[in-house]
Amino acid sequence: NPDIEILDFKMPKQVNMDQSFEFLFTIKANENCKIIADYIIHFQNKAGIMANKKIFKIKNTTLIKGEKLTIVKKYMFRKNMTTRKIFHGKHAIEIQINGRNYHKELFLVK
Fold this sequence. Notes:
It contains no helices and 8 strands. It has strands spanning 4-10, 14-15, 20-29, 33-43, 52-63, 68-76, 89-97, 100-109.
């Protein structure tokens, strides 16, 4: 795995249904490296358990030592999605670089 750091992770602690959830973070390379950056959303089910997750691709790039890359992403929590049902309650977002999990935080969908 590359020698990188996740810096300045920012996100709201809650989001309303049918509104976009925006988060941002910076990847700092401590060596020259190729990275595949993804984010994972852990969805709460009807019973209140985070049993389902979905991985979303962000970027595939090469960083040089000392380089910083800031990522800003949005995700829409739609009440009537065709692929899954979104439930109110606690969910989580996780940053994954080259298959390794680096940062995870909880948030509330209202």
